[in-house]
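Example (one chain per record):
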Amino acid sequence: MKNAVIYVHGKGGNAEEANHYKQFFDDSFEIIGFDYKSLNPWDAKIEFIHYFNSIISKYNKIYLIANSIGAYFSLISLSDMPIEKAMLISPIIDMERIILNIMKCENITEDELILKKDIETSFGESLSWQYLSYVRKNTIHWDIPTNILFADNDNMTSVETMTNFAGKINADLTVMENGEHWFHTEEQMTFLDNWFKENI
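Predicted structure:
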């Protein structure tokens, strides 16, 4: 029976990104990009659990690689799955804080959001009271062996928040100096690849 590596992309990403990770595994592994469709965490939880339940019996071991919001959806959905190891790249781990920061920047109060339910921001993203409420009620509980790659210039999460989170779930945290949330430059990808080789 083969092993599987499931790759979960971030916003604007795609399942084909999984091909990048084939270089790190031998022929006993099947590398699969999970082309999920959900935009909201409550839909993601259903979709992610259904997908993983459909493949569990087909593989001996399952590894998870998840990026940004794909990592967030994985963290709130897959904690009970038999995942051997998780490799998280720039994971979103405090969605409530991100939403509250956006509300602050846009001068939107919680009372306003409760009243209007959905508010469009100046940069095209929609704020939702349902989303914020769900995030607050569904906190992350995760005890799967995990390695996290993070950049100190990540504009979504502070180093302190990520360090505290890694400690809470006993994850091994690597921080790239002068990196960004999206690892994409040649230097950043070399760092990512070296991190991956050292930790897989």
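Caption: Residues 41-55 form the longest helix (15 residues).
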